[in-house]
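Problem: given the chain below (174 residues), write out its structure.
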Amino acid sequence: MKSNEVVSPDKAANYLRLGKAHVVVRWAEARLRNNPHDLQSRELLARALWATGAHRALLDQLAILIDQNPYEPGYHALRGAVLEAQGFTGEAIKALSRARTTEAIERIELLESMQKEQIESLMELNPEARAAFRADLRRACETYGFAFAPPQESRRKDLSKRAVVRMSDWVRPS
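Solution.
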């Protein structure tokens, strides 16, 4: 597939599945030059950028996608994964908190656990950090780039409420 060839998004998605992400990037960028509001091409571009490891460009595309549809959990989950891959654990947790999926909650719990260990280590090794965390935990977390999501119980309750609502939308009474 050449980037200037007229191809359907389904065929581009097949190329992506075949591991030809670089080709899909060129194809999607060409389509977006003609129609910057083409959501399907932008989503394919995001998937292809993830596959190629082009994190900075992917974050730019995700910002556009989130601006167009801030309620799509997949965009926030992918943003969280990219930020985590770049080492921005606190920012990843914030992004994953907006995804509100079971997988995102599980990932948040793991990242928070890692952060707690990092904070303990930082406090042990750095007297300045220890003093900062003891003085004002919230400010110290922000200063050192740590973030925590709302308590687990509230996240789980929120997720279970959403699951019940979704099921009630699909189950018909007999």
